[in-house]
């Protein structure tokens, strides 16, 4: 239950709704439990009018001194009136009808307050989880599957809503029904109540054991559901790879297997839950039988005693009392069967909230603040001092003691074999990952000393893996930029040499690119991503292998445009190809997480090392 404590702040926020909801529940049940008393009164009244009745003068106490003020005054009025029998019965019927209407009205208010409150809390909780997902850093996303994240924000939140909506409402409902019924039963006849309640401890034992089983099974089910969602999500994202490798059958089998495991677990939970209802019906049935038998026996003893002129042992027990008890037991059958349902909702909510808390309470690996950078953000010098980075999940030492001094407005090329640490270097400069050791400075200020959002606003990035949203080309280019006027978007697209192609799309700039840009070629996606970065106009530019999917002619055209765009910016161009036309101020060659060569084109060629080898290879390939 401790996991659900996280939700208390929401209850506090909506306390007025909650308290009014609880008040309406109590009122609705109050009007509900009055009806049996009037029914009992009528049943006994009928008896006194029966022609064969020979006990009309026997003084039963069943309807005297009612503790309830309302019932007392109704019965008092009816007794004092000189109404005929049919008038009394009609009056009681009308009063019972009015009570039912009042009960219904307050039930309506109870749902309007508590269920509406639960929808508000659900909305807040989803927003809080979403906000937390946004705050968590890249390393978190490396550890958790998207399907799992989706499942927690949707399915788990729905389960938790069942706790702060229906479960809270029904718990209070159940408690008030039980308290009102038991109170009235004890007030009426304590001895009959003890007899009637005798079978109920068995119910308590059943509830205890079944709850433990439900909790265990719920936990397993939620984990399995996450697996199924993750698998489905991955198979949709990777559908092209699956189809090209003709693996549809294998994926379907895997999905079937997981779905089947989920089904088996859900069925097994349903079986356990299904035990509750028949067990309750049986136990309430036994209690009703006891009320009838024991009640009739006591009533018989009363009559016998009255006949012999003795004091009646239980003058409060009449046929009306028995009818009243049966009505209370009917009312109690709902709470007793609902206890199981409510506890299973709570158990599931505990499991789901624990899963939500795992993410909600996770501290982002990158500490953030709201401090603005205290330097001229128009031009930025970047330096790295003894930077070390190890990937937590694999233990790979991707950057080893890297030091760099890049003056503002200079242009750097980063080359190196695959896996040498180039993208990692870009990511640590962007603070996507927090370095293990060393310092990264922008204009001599440690980048950890000011807010992440301000830092990232200083950087225009084209990642190695392009990501486009399922939106229009225009929105994809304008993403992350305040400048969404058409001329700027078109100018950026022209610079990225994609404008002409966009015009040929069915709806030009308003063409929707499909999920992750599936309707576009790899080269088109790359160039839209470049246009997006160009539009951002930041002082630092990081392009990670951004021309790998374009042909040589387009590449030359883009490089020509980039040459102009990069002027006045501090630029890091990560590449596998040497672009001699871009005039780099410095070229860095990386190997196994270290900088192994650095200098300009001429010095590196003269060094005759890795750079020279790459250059000669490229020249040979071009021939
Ligand atoms: N998310 C990750 N988790 C664990 N290890 C990673 C992760 N990303 C990269 N690595 C490892 O870190 C090392 C450096 O990878 P990085 O992506 O920086 O290389 P790269 O030089 O950019 O390669 P490429 O040219 O192929 O893009 C590699 O050994 C890689 O396996």
Tags for this entry?
ABC transporter transmembrane region fold, Rossmann fold, 2 domains, six-stranded mixed beta sheet, four-stranded antiparallel beta sheet, 20 helices, binds adenosine-5'-triphosphate, ABC_transporter-like_ATP-bd, ATP binding, nucleotide-binding, ATP-binding, membrane
What's the short version?
GO terms for molecular function: ATP binding. This protein is of the alpha/beta class and 623 residues long.
Quick one: CATH class of the largest domain? Answer: Mainly Alpha
- Main sheet characteristics: 6 strands, mixed
Q: How many helical stretches?
A: 20
* Structural class label: alpha/beta
Distance separating the two termini: 72 Å
CATH level 4 superfamily of the largest domain: ABC transporter type 1, transmembrane domain
Mean pLDDT across the residues is 86
How many domains make up the 3D coordinates?
2
Label the overall shape: elongated
Strand composition percent: 5-15%
Stretches where pLDDT is under 50 for at least 5 consecutive residues are none
Strands of the widest sheet, in order across it, are: 6-7-8-3-9-10
The helix content, as a percent range, equals 55-70%
- Please tally the β strands and state the result: 10
At CATH level 3, the topology of the largest domain is ABC transporter transmembrane region fold
Task: Please state the CA-atom Rg, rounded to the nearest Å.
Answer: 38 Å
């Amino acid at each position: 239950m401790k996991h659900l404590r996280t939700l208390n702040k929401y209850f506090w926020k909506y306390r007025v709704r909650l308290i009014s909801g609880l008040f309406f529940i109590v009122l609705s049940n109050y009007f509900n439990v009055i009806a049996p008393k009037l029914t009992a009164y009528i049943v006994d009244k009928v008896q006194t009018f029966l022609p064969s009745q020979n006990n009309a003068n026997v003084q039963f106490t069943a309807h005297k001194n009612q503790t309830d003020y309302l019932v007392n005054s109704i019965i008092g009025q009816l007794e004092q009136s000189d109404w005929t029998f049919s008038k009394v019965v009609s009056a009681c019927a009308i009063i019972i009808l009015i009570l039912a209407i009042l009960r219904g009205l307050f039930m309506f208010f109870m749902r309007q307050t508590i269920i509406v409150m639960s929808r508000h809390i659900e909305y807040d909780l989803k927003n809080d989880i979403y906000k937390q997902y946004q705050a968590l850093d890249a390393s978190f996303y490396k550890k958790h599957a998207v399907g799992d994240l989706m499942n927690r924000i949707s399915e788990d939140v729905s389960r938790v809503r069942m706790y702060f909506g229906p479960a809270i409402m029904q718990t209070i409902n159940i408690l008030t029904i039980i308290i009102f019924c038991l109170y009235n039963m004890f007030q009426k006849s304590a001895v009959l109540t003890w007899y009637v309640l005798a079978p109920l401890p068995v119910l308590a034992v059943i509830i205890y054991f079944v709850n433990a089983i439900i909790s265990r099974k719920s936990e397993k089910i939620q984990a399995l559901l996450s697996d199924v969602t993750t698998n489905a999500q991955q198979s949709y994202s990777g559908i092209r790879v699956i189809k090209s490798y003709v693996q549809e059958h294998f994926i379907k089998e895997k999905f079937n297997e997981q779905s089947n495991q989920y089904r088996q677990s859900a069925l097994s939970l349903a079986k356990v839950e299904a035990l509750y209802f028949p067990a309750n019906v049986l136990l309430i049935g036994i209690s009703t039988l006891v009320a009838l038998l024991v009640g009739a026996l006591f009533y018989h003893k009363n009559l016998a005693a009255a006949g012999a002129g003795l004091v009646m042992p239980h003058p409060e027990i009449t046929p009306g009392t028995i009818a009243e008890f049966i009505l209370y037991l009917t009312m109690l059958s709902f709470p007793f069967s609902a206890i199981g349902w409510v506890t299973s909702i709570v158990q599931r909510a505990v499991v789901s909230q624990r899963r939500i808390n795992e993410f909600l309470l996770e501290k982002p690996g990158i500490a953030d603040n709201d401090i603005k950078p205290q330097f001229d953000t128009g031009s930025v010098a970047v330096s790295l001092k003894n930077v070390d980075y190890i990937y937590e999940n694999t233990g790979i030492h991707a950057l080893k003691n890297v030091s760099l001094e890049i003056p503002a407005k200079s242009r750097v090329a980063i080359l190196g074999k695959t896996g040498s640490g180039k993208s990692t270097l870009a990511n640590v400069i962007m603070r996507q990952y927090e370095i293990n050791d060393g310092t990264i400075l922008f204009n001599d200020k440690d980048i950890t000393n000011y807010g992440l959002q301000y830092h990232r606003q200083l950087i225009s990035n084209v990642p190695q893996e392009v990501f486009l949203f399922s939106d229009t080309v225009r929105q994809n280019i304008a993403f992350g930029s305040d400048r969404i006027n058409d001329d700027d978007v078109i100018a950026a697209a022209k610079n990225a040499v994609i404008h002409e192609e966009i015009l040929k799309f069915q709806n030009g700039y308003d063409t929707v690119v499909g999920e992750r840009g599936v309707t576009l070629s790899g080269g088109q996606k790359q160039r839209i991503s470049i246009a997006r970065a160009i539009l951002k106009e930041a002082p630092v530019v990081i392009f990670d292998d951004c021309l790998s999917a374009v042909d040589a002619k387009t590449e030359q055209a883009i490089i020509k445009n980039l040459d102009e765009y990069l002027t006045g910016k501090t630029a890091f161009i990560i590449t596998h190809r040497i672009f001699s036309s871009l005039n780099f101020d410095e070229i860095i060659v990386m190997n196994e997480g270290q900088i192994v060569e650095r200098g300009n084109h001429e010095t590196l060629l003269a060094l005759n090392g890795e750079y020279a080898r790459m250059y000669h290879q490229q020249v040979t390939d071009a021939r």
